[in-house]
Amino acid sequence: MIDIGFTFGVAIYGMIWFVTLFTVLPFGVVTQDEAGDVEPGSPGSAPANIRIGRKLLITTLVSTVLFIIVYW
Q1: Mutual angle of helices 6-24 and 52-71, in 10-degree steps
Q2: Taking a C-beta distance cutoff of 8 angstroms, is the pair 47, 32 a contact?
Q3: Does the reported pTM lie above 0.70?
Q4: Is the per-residue pLDDT at 1 higher than 70?
Q5: Domain ranges, residue 38
Q6: Is 1 inside any structural domain?
Q7: What is the pLDDT of residues 6-49, one digit of tens each?
Q8: Residue 59 CB: number of other CB atoms within 10 A?
Q9: What's the structural domain count of the chain?
Q10: Which of 28, 42, 44, 65 pairs as cysteine with 33 (C-beta 3.0–4.6 A)?
Q11: Side-chain half-sphere of 41: how many Cα atoms within 13 Å?
Q12: DSSP labels for the chain?
């Protein structure tokens, strides 16, 4: 086990969380063009339904596992 302080641990977890978030965000994206429902005034490449809550949950779970691996 690595002996780290609380502040350092929070900083490492935050960095892992944000890297994981940017890794998870593109998965499962369906554009408005692909869905066939383009909102007026928005580009067709805009996401139709990003399901951000689900992505934040997946990010938190994966980040926690990675942090435990790094900490151990």
Answers
A1: 130
A2: yes
A3: yes
A4: no
A5: 7-71
A6: no
A7: 899 999 999 999 999 999 999 999 999 999 888 899 999 999 98
A8: 20
A9: 1
A10: 44
A11: 0
A12: -----HHHHHHHHHHHHHHHHHHHTTTT--BHHHHT-PPTTS-TTSBS---HHHHHHHHHHHHHHHHHHHH-
Alpha-carbon torsion (28, 31, 43, 57), positive or negative:
negative
Residue with tokens 């780290």, as numbered in its chain: 4
Does residue 2 fall inside a structural domain?
Answer: no
For residue 9, give both structure tokens: 């641990």
Cβ atoms of residues 65 and 22 within 8 Å: no
pLDDT over threshold 90, residue 2? no
